[in-house]
Write a structure and sequence with these properties.
Layout: H1 12-18, H2 21-24, H3 28-44, H4 50-70, H5 81-93, H6 106-142, E1 147-152, E2 155-161, H7 162-187, H8 206-212, H9 222-227, H10 230-257, E3 264-265, H11 284-307, H12 322-345, E4 347-348, H13 350-359, H14 364-375, H15 379-396, H16 405-411, H17 420-423, H18 425-431, H19 440-454
Helix pairs in contact: 3-4, 3-6, 3-8, 4-5, 6-7, 6-12, 6-19, 7-10, 7-19, 10-11, 10-12, 11-12, 14-15
The structure holds arginine.
Arginine binds at residues 20, 24, 80, 106-107, 110, 314, 318-319.
Length: 455
């Protein structure tokens, strides 16, 4: 397609290093959509005759049907999906196909196709994020009042409810969803008509192609339009952030599924066995979600490093933008689907959670707060008294609410037996009614609010 000035063809390795068809064939739908919009505009503007435009539009439909039925051939000589489609179009309608590329370059074409692809990817991811949140909400509602130990430093800290814990992930997913929406909004401008880098002398209507392709308008600077890959980097940033969130829940599932915790038992569908140890139920999917966060972050770093220091406008380095984006999209789709499935089908061992919450002195803060509230003790002093009570419980080998009143009074005479009313884990979580706190009624209200925000 560009061989006019060359006497010899490219070396085999040149062909191989140059070709993007092995991966960019994945954008064939977006390439056809872009060409359809372009040729309709060329006809409307009188740049291409109406009959030719009709033939091209029909031919593009045939090419699309051919791709749909047979896939896209990986013809390295045709370099990329753009040349491939033009060649197939020529097969279908003859030399008129050559009029399609009027007032266009592969530089604005690829920038347009790739934006369309990333936009579709964001829409798919957003739907998966909704499904995941729905799964979390169902389980959170079921466990709005199920007590578990809350951790800081992975040390038993204060009792919380499992519903509250799961709702923390809903919050993360809500931020992720809004980040994707924000990126989608910013990227939704059409590069088409920027041509190679300088714009075109043909009387194109960039607003028309932009709106035909669902963009909010055309990009404002032709040099920027063909050299900008911020939209892909932003998509990868959003995806990496989401993957990072998923990896944290995945890590908790791995911990929780281990015997010392025993907080969760993953369904058979989401466990794997060991080829040597018959007792094993391994949380492989959770481990892979945790691991894939590394690969997804690698995709982001890969494209950022590719773009670093590139002069304006287009450089062939930029062809390397697609593999990391495609890889990221596939991995994130898998991670979201796997976490959704695991959350939906997990059995939460609430008896184990409660047992651990009760045994870890997790209501020590409640004792200190009681001393502040009921006996007017300054918090620092209450903290010290409580520390002694915990030490006493340790010596006696009992829970905090099982330390006899005489022992407590011996530590501080201001304590009386009303204190037992706050030392149970249920009383503790029920008391945490501050906005955003773990009290079961708060958790239920948070679930209602999140459900409404989803619809
Ligand atoms: N395959 C190329 C890419 O993905 C298309 C643009 C090529 N433009 C050019 N002037 N060689 O970036």
């Amino acid at each position: 397609m560009w061989g006019g000035r060359f006497a010899e063809g490219p070396a085999a390795v040149m062909r191989e290093i140059n070709a993007s068809i092995p991966f960019d064939k994945r954008m064939w739908r977006q390439d056809i959509r872009g060409s359809q919009a372009h040729v309709a505009m060329l006809a409307k503007q009188g740049i291409v005759a109406g009959d030719d435009a009709k033939a091209i539009a029909r031919g593009l439909e045939q090419v699309a049907a051919h791709y749909e039925a047979n896939g896209v051939a990986e013809d390295l000589a045709l370099e990329d999906i753009h040349m491939q489609t033009e060649a197939r179009l020529a097969d279908a309608i003859g030399p008129t196909a050559g009029r399609l590329h009027t007032a266009r370059s592969r530089n604005d074409q690829v920038a347009t196709d790739f934006r369309l692809w990333v936009r579709d990817a964001i829409d798919e991811t957003s739907a998966a994020l909704v499904a995941f949140q729905q799964a979390l909400l169902i389980r959170a509602e079921e466990h709005a009042a199920s007590v578990m130990p809350g951790f800081t430093h992975l040390q038993s800290a204060q009792p919380v409810t499992l519903g509250h814990h799961l709702m923390a992930y809903v919050e993360m997913m809500r931020r992720d969803t809004s980040r994707f929406a924000d990126a989608r909004h910013r990227m939704n401008l059409s590069p088409l008509g920027s041509a190679a880098l300088a714009g075109t002398g043909f009387p194109v209507d960039r607003h028309a192609t932009a709106s035909a392709l669902g963009f909010d308008g055309p990009t404002r600077n032709s040099l920027d339009a063909v050299s900008d890959r911020d939209f892909a980097i932003e998509y990868l940033t959003c995806a990496a952030q989401t993957a990072l969130h998923l990896s944290r829940l995945a890590e908790e599932f791995v911990l929780w599924a281990s015997q010392p915790f025993g907080f969760v038992s993953l369904s058979d569908q989401w466990s794997t066995g060991s080829s040597i140890m018959p007792q094993k139920r391994n949380p492989d999917a959770a481990e892979l979600v945790r691991g894939h966060a590394g690969r997804i972050t690698g995709c982001l770093v890969s494209l950022m490093v590719t773009m670093k220091g590139l002069p304006l406008a287009y450089s062939k380095d930029m062809q390397d933008d697609k593999p990391p984006v495609f890889e990221c999209h596939d991995l994130l789709g898998l991670c979201l689907a796997a976490m959704t499935g695991m959350v939906e089908s997990a059995t939460f061992r609430t008896d184990r959670m409660r047992g651990l919450a009760e045994s870890g002195y997790a209501t020590a803060t409640d004792l200190a707060d009681w001393l502040v509230r009921e006996a007017g003790v300054p918090f620092r002093e209450a903290h010290h008294i409580t520390g002694r009570a915990v030490a006493r419980a340790e010596v006696l080998g009992v829970r905090l609410d099982q330390v006899p009143i005489d022992d407590l009074v011996a530590i501080d005479a201001r304590i009386d037996d009303r204190v037992y009313g706050v030392l149970s884990v249920d009383a503790s979580v029920a008391s945490r009614t501050s906005f955003g706190g773990t009290a079961p009624d708060n958790v239920r209200a948070a679930i209602r609010e999140a459900r409404e925000a989803l619809t």
